Each structure stands twice: as C-alpha cells, then as structure tokens.
Amino acid sequence: MVDIGGFGGMGGGFGIVGTLFPIVFVIILIFIVVKLISGVAEWSSNNRQPVLTVEAGVVAKRTEVSHHNHNTNGQAHMHTSTTYYVTFQVESGDRMEFRVNGREFGQLAEGDQGRLTFQGTRYHGYERW
C-alpha cells in the first residue's frame, strides 16, 4: 500500500503527524518553562536591589494594546487589554522605562520633573515638583 498524505499505511499509525505532535508539544513546554524561569529570576533580582529615589524627568509615554479573541460555547468573545509604559531620564542622561498602571499613566505628562522611586525594574512611584 502507498502512503498518501503522511498518515501511514496499514497499521502504521499517523506517520509524520505522530512524529511532529510530540516535537511541537515539547517546544511549547520548553517555551513556557523558560518564561516562568525568567519571570522568577527578574522578580528575585528586583527583590535584591535597593529601593532608589532619584531626580528624573518624564521623556516619553506609550501604550501597548493587545486583543484576545476566543470562542466559548459557540459565542465569540473579544477582550482588549492596555499596558502602559513611561520613560524617565535621570540626571546622568540614562533612560529607564517602567510599566505603570493606567492611573499613574494618566497623571504623568511628558516634560514633568520630579523624583522617581524604583527597585530594579520595578516602578514604585513618581513625585512631581
């Protein structure tokens, strides 16, 4: 019998599909594990850093909007989420971008001057002058 479409012959399983599925599964599993490990490493690194307060100005603001579509019991649902980022410039000229909540994002304006409090990559607050 001739193998047509890669699904194997008589009693031959699923051929290429049976081989690719475990490989794709392992790749996805490795990706998830790497993301978890990097998240825990960043959290741990931030906890080891001192909380610093420095003079800084707001130089840029940006948003990142993501859309999620899913289907539940035949009904389509769409969810949109917005992530807010603010870039600060300190006296040395270095720039740092932090993820902030929507309330903080709305209260800050480009050109603001004040005191930035942070711990590693974790934003703690900004006090305008």
From TrEMBL:
One Pfam family matching this protein: DUF2500
Record field: transmembrane: 12-34
UniProt keyword terms in alphabetical order: Membrane, Transmembrane, Transmembrane helix
InterPro entries: DUF2500
Protein's UniProt name: DUF2500 domain-containing protein
